[in-house]
Amino acid sequence: MAVRKLAPEELQPQSFVLSPETEAFADKEIAKYPPGRQASAVIALLGKAQEQAGGWLPRKAIEAVAAKLDMPVIRVMEVATFYTMFNLEPVGKYFIQFCGTTPCVLRGAGDIKKVLERRIGDQNHITPDGLFSWLEVECLGACSNAPMVQINDDYYEDLTTENFEKLLDDLAAGRPVKKGSQIGRNRSEPFEAVNTLQDPALYDGSLVGAWRKRFDEQAKVAETGETAAAMASVPQEARAAKPGAGRAIESEAADTPAKRAKEGETPINPVDRKEAADPSTATKGPSHTEAEPRPAPQSSKSYVASPTKDGEAVPSSPTTPVAGTPPAQAETRRDGSESKPGVVVDKDNKTS
Amino acid sequence: MAKIIVDGVEVDVPAEYTLLQAAEAAGAEIPRFCYHERLSIAGNCRMCLVEVKGAPKPVASCAWGVRDCRPGPNGEPPEISTKSPTVKKAREGVMEFLLINHPLDCPICDQGGQCDLQDQAMAYGVDTSRFHENKRAVTDKYLGPLVRTSMNRCIHCTRCVRFTAEVAGVPDLGALWRGEDMEITSYLEKALGSELQANVADLCPVGALTHKPEAYHYRPWELTKTDSVDVMDAVGSSIRVDSRGREVMRILPRVNEAVNEEWITDKTRQIVDGLRLQRLDRPFVRENGRLRPASWQEAFAAIAARMKGTDPKRIGAIVGDLAAVEEMYALKLLMESLGVTNIDARQDGTVLSPAYGRGSYLFNTTISGIEDADAILIVGSNPRIEASLVNVRIRKRWRMAPPPIALIGENADLTYPYDYLGAGPETLADLAAGRHSFIEKLRGAERPLIIVGQGALSRPDGLAVLSTVAQLARDVGAVKDGWNGFSVLHTAASRVGALDLGLVPGDWGLDARSMAQGGVDVLFNLGADEIEIAPGAFVIYQGTHGDRGAHRADVILPAATYTEKSGTYVNTEGRVQLANRAAFAPGEAREDWAILRALSDVLGHRLPFDSLNALRAKLYASYPHLAAIETVQPADGFAAVQTLAGIGGTLGREPFASPIKDFYLTNPIARASGVMAECSALARELKLEAAE
């Protein structure tokens, strides 16, 4: 998160009065809440005050909102500083929030950022003409149309360096610009060709209730078919009133030597045994010999592996792994196949 | 009541208890930072994690109710574990996170030795850190002259924020920014505007907020702790006086549910430097218009010489606000033996008198009784500055469920909203005559409380005001079986004790004002500094500080402050409390009763006791209720209200004004204190700012 601070004193306006429009908005917002709970409207009012003040919240605006809501100023200040969408320093007429999260970066947001840096300069910096400032933000939720920026209240998506430069030019010149996708696609439809959801039946209402029909048919089969006969022969077990579903604590560990022994299988997984026997893989982590000796920990509670005194048990809590121990290596361990050595696990689900 | 099993011990606790409270009821200790009994629950430090049987994760016991626990499958009581390995591991994890950003500056931290984090790290901490990044750095904040900040140490428990907003009622502090950048600060780093602000440093579980005036002066383990009682106001807060050698180093609150809960005012706490500045450490005698140091013998001889030929009718005694019961009793006996009836302990001119019964001058409702009141009328008082902790109780009552509260007097910010009825006796008369709408609320209330302050009583028409208030109390049924809602709020610690002893003018005796204005030739002034004594009389001042009384004195007898003697004080409710000696008086100053005993010998009327115990034995024989330390002897409310109501009188037109003009400078000790002077200047500034 970018470092936020209050704007310096010389940028703060001398006074701030809620405009009649803001006042009207405020009264409407306050009326939404029970009497005495007017403080609930604080975010809405701060948003409106930010709009009125030109995209940022001067100190006087925060005080005006506090006075309007009859709140201590510090409480309003807490809200204004908590939410990053309240700008506490002046922004340009076009305040560009540039998405720098993974999907956008994968789709070329790096180039967009270079454009911003070249044309506007650093983040949180207003161009001399007062038109632009920009800020890198986290995901704005338009990943399918990446890369994108938000300029004031609107999203501009599917950016390339060319169309973004043009967008900035148009904004600077005051020409109308197109919101949303800059390459002409409709919302977030596939931008090449629409191949899915084209069945007209999806839209004519004929599928309404289809699931019930299917459900009834399946139930009929169960009543009459051989499944029913099979079910009848199963003895009715008394079931606990509260099944242990979803309770991790009560479920048995999936695969332990003890469990395997109980089920009459070899307690040690053959894969593990083979691996353990292989001297080349016995230790996979880096060597324990270090250039400098570690400082000696002063108690057995240390998190660093400590040289133990004679006769003292090594602390072996599962949460304090010994440094250098590799994570579980065998690929075949966690997929449930370990107790069925004959089954070949097909990880990629490509049944041949 | 609900049953719950804590570590195998089944306990029966109220269902609204939290798991933390239930665990404490079962004797299990739960570490905590953010949780505090008297503040709202924040649940943000996570140190109080416990294991609840059936819950998938450890839960924060401070924020989980007993009634929220699920019973076992066969209806067994819910079961929690506070000592299991899971719990220990969870708390160790929390502690490790807390210590990530906490600086390792215990050796230079004032909280060292009294630090919750230090203590709990001994149980749950590890000795090395796995965190290899830089620690967070936070700039220190300015919060005024009483609270020093070191914000790197802050663990964001928000106790200070909750205290100022909830108990003090002055929402100055807040937590700005978010996440790792969160910072506790006041708006634009203004000084805190509460008379209870220093309590935030007590509440701080780490060394982020410490007491500024005493920074780096001591380590807590060097101090000798003495339980005592405060005399800065008539509330009589329970305090602990910590001293090192001869010097008092600090004053801390003691928990006393009946009086101050666990808060004290800044004045109570920070007059410590006033206890050593401007002290009278030897007797003085005025010669040729100038005071010169003298020996005790010289001083006593000067007094004896002056008293010898004086008619007892021309001798008088005034008692100040900080005197303990013992010396007042000694003074009373001495004056009686001299045949003097001019004796008065009411230097502010209040009309209260034992003649109308003990119930006429006590805060009969008791301070904790305020929580039961369902309508409150305050007459001629600003409880916030006259008795801050009474105000805290009223605010606590208001926070439970707002009762109707009204005020006649100065329209001041009391930290809770109230109906402002008017400024003076006319409004009171209207109300008493039933011409004001608030009377309906008082009549409708089951347990109405009427508080009358000294602002309404220490004035020429005070008796008429008191009588009107008593009539009102009688009319609205404020005094009935099981409830006495007629309460007088005092401002002087000595006052109720003095009235109990009957330190008011006897037959044809003069009151304090007449004595000060030249009604007597020899005036014995036992620590009365708030009264102007006219030139002429020969004044013997027995007191502790070189204040107004000493300047006007002809003979000065240096005495001991409340931390330097064992003394009984009776607070505004009539609660008898004992102050204990924590240090010794400086120089040749002596305990007050001993000075009077020695003086009586010189005057030829030797008092009949040679030790404090002998004095007390005699005192308790005459006034048995003073022997019942820590208790309130209830007074007969019916009789008192009837008597007062029958007095009548004509009400004046002057609006009521609080007798306390400056909260921080109400007595000689406070006026000697540099810290109080600073607070006073700052408060004046804030007031001016607010007025703009």
Describe this structure in words.
The complex is a heterodimer of chains A (352) and B (692). Chain A is mostly helical. Chain A contains 11 helices and 5 strands, in the order H-H-H-H-E-H-H-E-E-E-H-E-H-H-H-H. Chain A has helices at 20-30, 42-52, 59-69, 73-82, 102-106, 109-119, 161-173, 210-224, 226-233, 257-262, 270-277; strands at residues 94-99, 132-137, 149-151, 154-157, 180-181. In chain A, strand 3 (149-151) and strand 4 form a beta hairpin. In chain A, helix 1 (20-30) packs antiparallel against helix 2 (42-52), helix 2 packs across helix 3 (59-69) and helix 8 crosses helix 9 (226-233). Chain B is α/β, with parallel strands linked by helices and 692 residues long. In chain B, the strands form 8 sheets. A 7-stranded mixed sheet of chain B has the order 14-13-26-25-24-15-16, with helices on both faces. A 5-stranded mixed sheet of chain B has the order 2-1-5-3-4, with helices on both faces. A 5-stranded parallel sheet of chain B has the order 19-18-17-20-23. In chain B, strand 1 (2-6) and strand 2 form a beta hairpin. The two termini of chain B are 54 Å apart. The A-B interface holds A 1, 3-4, 72-75, 77-78, 81-82, 241-242, 247-249, 297-299, 301-304, 317, 319 and B 56, 73, 89, 126-128, 130, 165, 171-179, 181, 186-187.
List the helices and strands and how they pair.
The complex is a heterodimer of chains A (352) and B (692).
Chain A: H1 20-30, H2 42-52, H3 59-69, H4 73-82, E1 94-99, H5 102-106, H6 109-119, E2 132-137, E3 149-151, E4 154-157, H7 161-173, E5 180-181, H8 210-224, H9 226-233, H10 257-262, H11 270-277
Helix pairs in contact in A: 1-2, 2-3, 3-4, 8-9
Chain B: E1 2-6, E2 9-13, H1 19-25, E3 49-52, E4 59-60, E5 79-81, H2 85-100, H3 116-124, E6 147-149, H4 159-167, E7 173-176, E8 183-186, H5 199-203, E9 209-211, E10 224-229, E11 238-244, E12 247-253, H6 266-270, E13 284-287, E14 290-293, H7 296-308, E15 315-319, H8 325-338, E16 342-344, E17 375-379, H9 383-386, H10 388-400, E18 405-408, E19 419-422, H11 425-432, H12 438-444, E20 448-453, H13 454-457, H14 462-475, E21 479-480, E22 483-484, E23 486-489, H15 495-501, H16 512-519, E24 522-526, E25 538-543, H17 548-551, E26 555-558, E27 567-570, E28 576-579, H18 592-603, H19 612-622, H20 637-647, H21 668-672, H22 674-691
Parallel strand pairs in B: 1-5, 15-16, 15-24, 17-18, 17-20, 18-19, 20-23, 24-25, 25-26
Antiparallel strand pairs in B: 1-2, 3-4, 3-5, 6-9, 7-8, 10-11, 11-12, 13-14, 13-26, 21-22, 27-28
Helix pairs in contact in B: 8-18, 11-14, 14-20
